[in-house]
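Page 47, continued from p. 46.
Same chain as before, 207 aa.
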Amino acid sequence: MPAPAVLFMIDAIPRLQDTVVATLPSSYEPRGAGARVTVRPAVVLVWEWQNGGLQLDIDRTTLIGRELRSAIYTVTEVDVNDFLGVVDEPGFAATREITASAADNASLAPPSFAPFVAVLGLLKTFDWQDDFLFDYRTGTAMFGEQSIEFHRPLRVGELVAIAASISDVCEKQGKSLFDVIEVTFEITGSAEGDRLMSGQQSYILFK
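Result:
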């Protein structure tokens, strides 16, 4: 059954006087004087007319508590070596060479590689449009703050699982209006109770 549609009649702007029919999530809300709206239940269509004074916002606070899809990431030797090629880890590289005969030590990934795994892993857990109500093709997004607690080192060759959820959303005003979406995550190994790292990652979505 298709989602209910919304019928908009916008008389304030001559070029938008035609009737428009569309389907969008219920978190969309219209603003602006002069817009006459007829709504069929449950969803509201949002128009953005950049030069016409019609300000339209998306309420992303409804996303708080959303569980994101699970994802996996394999810590490969290739990725670690590529990372060490651009990140200065002389102490770690020397330690790996000296302890090459010890399998456990030789297979460790550098500590600074862990945030890289968190960033890549989290990008697999969400869809910009479906989960963040954001069109990355036309909008601007940035990575925000990242906070990680490490529980044990990463090892080359292991498969890790990423679980994440949206823990908070807040609207802020700088030079432009933007939303900050905070995602809480946990990364685990293959064994039960094997926690590698946990923390928060925020994403900045400009309106």
